[in-house]
Amino acid sequence: MNLDEFKGVWVFIEQRDRGVAPVSLELLGAGRALADKRGVELAGILIGHNVKDLTNTLFQYGADKVYVYDAPIFSQYRTEPYMHAVVEACRKYKPEIMLYGATSTGKDLASAVATDLATGLTADCTMLDVDPETGLLEASRPAFGGNIMATILCKKHRPQMATVRPKVMKALAPEPGRRGQVVEEQITLTEDEVRTKVLEVVRETTKRPRLDEADIIVAGGKGLKDAEGFQLCYKLAEVLGASVGASRDAVEAGWIDHHHQIGQTGVTVTPKIYFAIGISGAIQHVVGMQNSELIIAINNDPNAPIFQTCHYGIVGDAFEVVPALIAAFKEA
Ligand code: FAD
């Protein structure tokens, strides 16, 4: 592999409901800084159906160029056609660095692309930089339960790829009127060749933001006793305009859907405020929420491990503390 052939920083643009996902705008901000350091172009790769009108937004947020794959085959996210598009584009244009949001779509796509291109992928990054001497991407992420930061290099393969946690990087202020180049592409794959079909899309009926984009999260655990007790989380969330999350034990008890599970085998979140109610603070939970700006724990066991992670801890019975908080917030 001739590494010198690979140039430019690319961002996979995630879109839904006719808008660009906030994490993709954040990655354009991070990608802009990397591209400027390398003295190369910043491009977005936008895949979907009827999505061309999103390109202007991408230019305003820092992209110089956008590769667009716009066809009915891309109307719902499916691994195969999306992977096919990204792999074809990477083989044709040879980007040096490729970034994805660490969302369920980004993680799924990036790992499939990495396998097909036989290149490396650093997952769940929280810092990105380029080494001024070697020009290599330095992709850093918390490791060993957040006790160290691991910086991972991809020395021999290209593109160098990373998924990046939402809400860690900063989007640039949009520059109205900023323009760039649109490159329209087509893939050779046909619908008959795709092995998966989307039969139905069931939308969650909630007005609350997605967990990975929420500013405030109220998360509940097994300490809330049963499904009725877990409703306390919804009541507190209602007052605060927050989203509701859960530990794995609460999910496994059937009190809330798996999409709300936070932790190693669930979502990673970084809200401004995180309430952990009746959650013990097992490491598998903590790795998914420890980067929250402010963590408030409510637990009746003063020795619960969550008190090692939180900024404020309330030792008490959730069934007394949470109603008192709700009443206080309502008054405020
Ligand atoms: P518990 O550990 O049972 O804690 C309940 C807490 O509630 C206790 O601290 C108790 O003191 C407190 N409590 C009880 N009554 C009250 C009351 N009235 N008021 C206030 N507090 C009260 N877990 C996750 O959360 N996310 C993951 O992604 C995840 N992935 C995992 C992956 C693997 C491979 C493994 C092995 C485990 C994983 N787990 C995960 C499970 C994890 O190890 C814990 O078992 C789980 O997080 C515990 O959930 P919990 O804190 O709700 O329950």
UniProtKB/TrEMBL annotation:
Lineage per the UniProt record: Bacteria, Bacillati, Bacillota, Bacilli, Bacillales
GO biological process, one term: fatty acid beta-oxidation using acyl-CoA dehydrogenase
UniProt protein name: Electron transfer flavoprotein alpha subunit
Domain (Electron transfer flavoprotein alpha/beta-subunit N-terminal) ranges: 9-198
Co-factor requirement: FAD
Gene Ontology molecular-function annotations: electron transfer activity; flavin adenine dinucleotide binding
Family matches, as Pfam families: ETF (PF01012), ETF_alpha (PF00766)
Cofactor note text: Binds 1 FAD per dimer.
Keyword Flavoprotein: yes
